[in-house]
Amino acid sequence: MVQRVLITVGAVGVILLLVVLAGVVGVLYARPATAQTSVGVPGMRQVTVVGHGESQGRPDMATVQIGVDSEAPTAKDALAQNNTQAQAVLDKLKQLGIAEKDIQTSNFSIYPTYATDGRQVTGYHVTNSVSVKIRNLDQSGTLLDQVVQAGANSISGISFSVTDPQSQLEQARKQAVEDAKARATQLATSGGATVGEMLVITENIGSQPPVPMAFERAAGAVADQSVPVQAGEQSFSVDVQVTFALR
Questions:
Q1: Number of other residues whose CB lies within 10 A of the CB of residue 184
Q2: Is residue 17 one of the residues assigned to a domain?
Q3: DSSP 154
Q4: Chain segment 186-199, per-residue pLDDT in tens
């Protein structure tokens, strides 16, 4: 009888222990998760803003596609004609001071041409184009005309760029940070606070893509003056996300 009572009491104790453990686990799972912040310092009053800065620089380099298109009754004749004209264009580019590193083949193709019925081959078309970097923009108009005289009959896609944009980016960064501080100050003042130290800053850099300018001249045309080329300006922008402490 005594042994049975002891066993019963022991079983009750185990059951009570399980109930207590279940309650503790339930409390742990019921507690709300700690709030997470993506920026800033947890536990501090703070404000996060995005500042924008932008600066303009005059391009100092142009990139242009210069090519030769040729047609002949046979592929052999079309290729021979194209090779002669293309080599003359390359020679002219080098005479004008364009370095070999700034001349790169960008397209070469040979394909048949067809009659109106779409079945009979009437000849062959050969295209050979190079991408040319012009580092002296004052020379660009004259260069375009002279390569046409040398045999180029396809010129297109001229675009401008700044070879060393660091000075423009530095100006844009400074403006972006100043803009961020001004935004943060305005928000803090509206909320009855003042801006404290900078806690976190991240940067995104962007630049206006080179703007292409079409230039086409028919085969056999004779240039009598340099092509008017306007480089304009290129815009560089910086966006910064800044978190400031609030006081």
A1: 25
A2: no
A3: E
A4: 999 999 999 999 99
